[in-house]
Design a protein that fits this description.
Layout (H helix, E strand, L loop, with lengths): L6 H4 L5 E5 L4 H14 L6 H14 L3 E3 L2 E2 L2 E3 L7 E11 L9 E9 L3 H18 L2 H8 L4 H7 L2
Parallel strand pairs: 1-5, 3-6, 4-6
Antiparallel strand pairs: 2-3, 5-6
Helix pairs in contact: 2-3, 5-6
């Protein structure tokens, strides 16, 4: 299988959740981990959540403009995945602009050397786009998976 090269190729509609009702980041992490486990992308959702939580202690993943990009390299990850969650309201999150978060793009990669390379590639690909407020606004206001993909086009 070839490696997806564009954001639209990376976004699996089954891993997009819009207007989600989660009240805090831990609820987001558990929901995403369980969805990834259902798809076979994660073998142990609890271990994956622990790895995400550990990464959160290492530095802020809230990049501003209501967006967070939590990520973890984890032995629980079978297949690299990108999950997108847009919340129905802003929640507390440690961010670079000291504001909350409403859009979350969570990267799941394994902890092997190839996973580390994929981790950096995914972060770079998304970070370039998320630096633009018009893109983050379009993501937050998305009403369909197609809108999410279009936000990054």
């Amino acid at each position: 299988m070839s490696t997806p090269q564009t954001i639209s190729e990376l976004i699996d509609p089954e891993l997009v959740e819009l207007r989600a009702p989660y009240a805090n980041k831990l609820e987001v992490f558990h929901a995403v981990a369980n969805r990834l486990a259902e798809k076979g992308a994660v073998s142990d959702p609890d271990a994956f959540v622990r790895d995400i939580q550990f990464r959160e202690t290492q530095g802020k993943t809230g990049i501003g403009n209501l967006i967070a990009i939590p990520h973890a390299k984890s032995s629980a990850v079978n297949n690299p995945s990108v999950s997108v969650v847009v919340l129905d309201q802003e929640i507390e999150w440690e961010t670079l602009d000291d504001a909350g978060v409403q859009g979350i793009i969570l990267f799941a990669v394994n902890d092997q050397p190839e996973g580390a390379r994929e981790h950096l590639r995914l972060l770079s690909l998304f970070a370039r786009k998320l630096a633009h407020k018009e893109i983050t606004d379009a993501l937050i206001n998305a009403s369909s998976t197609d809108d999410v993909v279009a936000a990054f086009a």
